[in-house]
Amino acid sequence: xxxxxxxxxxxxxxxxxxxxxxxxxxxxxxxxxxxxxxxxxxxxxxxxxxxxxxxxxxxxxxxxxxxxxxxxxxxxxxxxxxxxxxxxxxxxxxxxxxxxxxxxxxxxxxxxxxxxxxxxxxxxxxxxxxxxxxxxxxxxxxxxxxxxxxxxxxxxxxxxxxxxxxxxxxxxxxxxxxxxxxxxxxxxxxxxxxxxxxxxxxxxxxxxxxxxxxxxxxxxxxxxxxxxxxxxxxxxxxxxxxxxxxxxxxxxxxxxxxxxxxxxxxxxxxxxxxxxxxxxxxxxxxxxxxxxxxxxxxxxxxxxxxxxxxxxxxxxxxxxxxxxxxxxxxxxxxxxxxxxxxxxxxxxxxxxxxx
Length: 355
Fold this sequence. Notes:
single chain, alpha+beta, PH-domain like, 3 domains, 7 helices, 21% helix
């Protein structure tokens, strides 16, 4: 057994394979000097780790935009030049992992930690920066910002990007060193009419008189290049899932383990809870496309925690506990496993008011 005292953080991350570059979900445990990762077998974490990443001399890149369909990556390069790509389920989660890993890497070097905090809050935009140059780079078909179809309040906007995606892109392309700096730059792009807000969230922020509050570093605020606004709304064919299901406000998202309906095997899925309309969708985090593999309306659902003594009826396999069950209006039973009692409670409390 590997020594796991002094756990700084733990949770599911999606990891790129070394030999075959496929993506697999692993349970990661951050210790002072290393990151351990475990495989999930059945519904349980295996007792010994599948691998470890030694943090001494590691460099971390975050945001890392090397995979355009995986915008929430952290890249670690070890002392021996091995690259690890780890994907998180949300921007907040990614930034929190990056901060904790960075802290662990530099734990022995307090000066570097101070330097890091200074840099995070620093503000020095590149001298004589050309906004035209940035926009040309943003429009580059291979390295530019990825334009996607986004949905807000039932409207579909083609060729848009989110505020946080632009901030990530500006940092990743060395136009800014901190998010604060990137937001200022993004505001300048907007002020000079290179980009414009679309949708209620980002347009609403324009009402603030203070320039620094007009651009939102937010994954629900949408923007586009100023001259593409003609063909904003897209055709119906592009989405297989009913558009209204995915148009609600995201209330909560995270990785949970779900029991399959047919084969009863346990798989890690990224769950996204939306309100107005109230739906719970789940995605396969190992796949590139951002389309749900399943989901259901929460209206009329029953949600309850399952006791941890013994295996409840309907549950197969050797599970770790922290289970809860959702029964839909059509009497379909979903068995879901959280990674702690607290996480289970948070999910149940978030779902209940929407049923």
